[in-house]
Amino acid sequence: MSGAGNRYVVVPTVTVLAVIKNRLTGAKKGHQLLKKKADALNMRFRQILKRIMETKEKMGVSLRESNFALTEAKYTAGDSVKHTIVDSVKEASVRVAAREDNVAGVKVPVFERNDLDSSQEKNSELFGLSKGGQKVSSAKDSFQKTMDLMIELASLQCAFVTLDEAIKTTNRRVNALEHTIIPKLENTILYIKGELDELEREEFFRLKKIQGKKQEAKERQEKEDKEKELATLSNGKQVDPFAGAGNLGDLLSSPGLTDNDIIF
């Protein structure tokens, strides 16, 4: 029988046994579901990790190309074009929109690019028309690609951190169910069954003892009855079954009972 430290402290009754069995069934189902959830999270986690590595490589290349394109634009259109473009920007033409994606019950943030209709977007196309306009446009496109990669990388890294925390929490729950809760419930069930069996054996022994005492009392009563009967016989007090019949006498000599037809 398991010690009290490896089981829950309960009263060993049939009702409590049914409750503990239901809890054990629920714990096992929860353990299976959490295992499936952990597997799904790990699979998505590995996919995101792979995409992060690929996106970082692409972003490194894109940043290098963007800086080269900016250097070419400044060389072709002059250094003044940079200040002209910066001074002309009044508001952002691109916003980052956030939404949530559901991965096995875990809400993962996803960032997306959201272009805004702005007049400065059209005005920016006029920069560098005098000279180096193609290089300026090329630098703009290159930095837009870099920005898209940065948004994607930020989304992947946020999802990476969120899934990592969710996986750790899920694994802690799985380990708690597998190594603590389920064994304690099983030990509690064994303890209750053992106590109920012990009570059943004690009840059986008690009933058997009561039945034995009743049998002894019955035999003792029968023995006393036999002794009384033998004592009565030995004292001559036995009742004569014909004692009350009286002296019948001779039926033929009784008056009124003679048969007139008898001739001798």
UniProtKB/TrEMBL annotation:
Family: Belongs to the V-ATPase D subunit family.
Biased composition (Basic and acidic residues): 215-230
Keyword Cell inner membrane assigned: no
Region (Disordered): 215-238
Protein name: Subunit D of vacuolar ATP synthase
Pfam hit, one: ATP-synt_D
Keywords tagged on the record: Ion transport, Transport
Gene Ontology MF, one: proton-transporting ATPase activity, rotational mechanism
Top-rank taxon, per record: Eukaryota
NCBIfam families from the UniProt entry: V_ATPase_subD
InterPro entries: V_ATPase_D
